[in-house]
Amino acid sequence: MSVLLVLAVIVFTSYILTLFRKPKNFPPGPQWIPWIGNTYKLRNEARKLGSQHKVFNKWSEDYNSKIIGFKLGKDNVVVVHGYDLVHKVHLDEVFEGRPDNFFLRLRTMGTRKGITCTDGPLWVEQRNFAVRHLRQAGYGKVQMDNHIRNERNDLIEFITNLNEAPTWPGSFLAPSIISVLWYLTASKKLERTDKRLSRLLELLQQRSKAFDMCGGMLTQMPWLRFIAPEKTGYNMICNLNKELHEFFMDHITEHNENFSNDKIERDVIYAYINEMKIREGTVNNTFNDHQLTMTILDFFIAGSQTTSTTLDLSIMMLTLHPELQSELRDEIDKKVGEGIEPCYNNKNFFPKTEAFLMEVQRFFSIAPITGPRRALWDTKLDGYDIPKDTTILIGLRSVLMDKKYWKDPEAFRYTRFLNESKVVQHEYFMPFGQGKRRCLGDSLARSCLFTFFVGILQNFTIQIPENENPPSTDLLPGITLSPKPYKVIFKERLLK
């Protein structure tokens, strides 16, 4: 018995030691502990530094490496910094996968569906459909630009009715973006007074606050949902998922009842229903109602908050730099006086304005860490071994703020994107990513951002109210960074 006990102790000790041991030739990083990995270390340091991406930057400096490796729960995780590694991960087929973890399944209501969080044949098929039918539904075409301009006019009317009351722009910008997305999805306009719009925004905002860049505690320790379902946010996410599913299904059901072949190109839901009818009864059919709801959810999560946040930050920078308001407004007034419509299709006539919006995206980098990707097979990266199924996080901000490419990245200088009054398409400017997983909504986001921004600047002078502190350029952490609430006054201009 004593021999068996000794053997058992030796085996158990060996097992524990393997949990401490890093994979052979794994990228440098902090030592982890069994079962938990570096979860608590990351959270504690993020609390001190203010954001997880700052922790990753610190570790990169501490270990003098553009690639760092650590463990969150049971998962191997790698973060890459610098253009060369970021570019490689963006484009290399081995990194096209998505992790199959509790967080991503919880995000998609317990499934592995949709487009954003899938990979393999399902992802390829659904992504190709989305790209094809987004275009048919008006994505990037005149009819969508017309709808964006209509939403711009509604936004200007709303701001005018504020009667110069001090207001935080972030409190009213999101409905305009959501309305554009919903028109594309369901060919219906959502009015600001519509309670469904308010509830949809509330649900999306609550979901975004429940997670961090690495998925939150439930990703690393999903068993916590059984011990603390309220504190971990598990119950809240489940309830939000249920409401969102019911909201989308109500409209899908209505579209099914009113379906006809002449409506196929009207919106995404009709196009998807048509595809379901075509593929009904075929082998390995992935087109169904549940997949459609997850695809719609992907559109809204990807497009709503990032675009409205960028617009919010653009307004904030105009407030902090009144001289830029004059420069950009002079450009807009001159071109409008020449009969040029200030819309995204005509952006080349407004190079200063376009360059300004590009600099806002570069300077703030509201998605400092993107991904997550999954290594589809054992591979190498920067000379290190990356085991299959390792999670890869992309340090996008490290590229957008690299002195090697931008010289003075900490300075807000929109002229860096201009050359002889023309916009420079900078190789290292990639706020929407690169490759096959580049954001599907980049064209729509840029169109909304440009059209809404020009409309606001053309019609209002933006000022800081008396006795109000200037806005802070230090952003709040989260899956995406966001500005701290601030207040401005929109003074209506008398247009000629």
Structure description:
The protein is an alpha+beta fold and 496 residues long. It has one domain: Cytochrome P450 (Cytochrome p450, Orthogonal Bundle). It is 51% helix and 8% strand. It has 19 helices and ten strands. Strand 1 and strand 2 form a beta hairpin. The N and C termini lie far apart (97 Å). The mean pLDDT is 88.
What features would you highlight for this structure?
single chain, two-stranded antiparallel sheet, 496 residues, 51% helix, alpha+beta
CATH architectural group: Orthogonal Bundle
As a whole number of angstroms, the C-alpha radius of gyration is 24 Å
Structural class assignment: alpha+beta
* Strand residue content: 5-15%
The count of strands amounts to 10
Name the poorly predicted regions. none
Mean pLDDT: 88
Strand and helix order = HHHEEHHHHHHHHHHHHHEEEEHHEEHEE
How are the strands of the biggest sheet laid out side by side?
1-2-6-3
Which term fits the overall shape? globular
> So what's the CATH class?
Mainly Alpha
**Residues in helix, %:** 40-55%
Name given to the CATH homologous superfamily: Cytochrome P450
Number of domains as seen in the coordinates: 1
Would you give the CATH topology? Cytochrome p450
Please, how many helices?
19
Please describe the biggest sheet, giving its number of strands, its sense, and whether it closes into a barrel: 4 strands, mixed
Distance between the termini: 97 Å
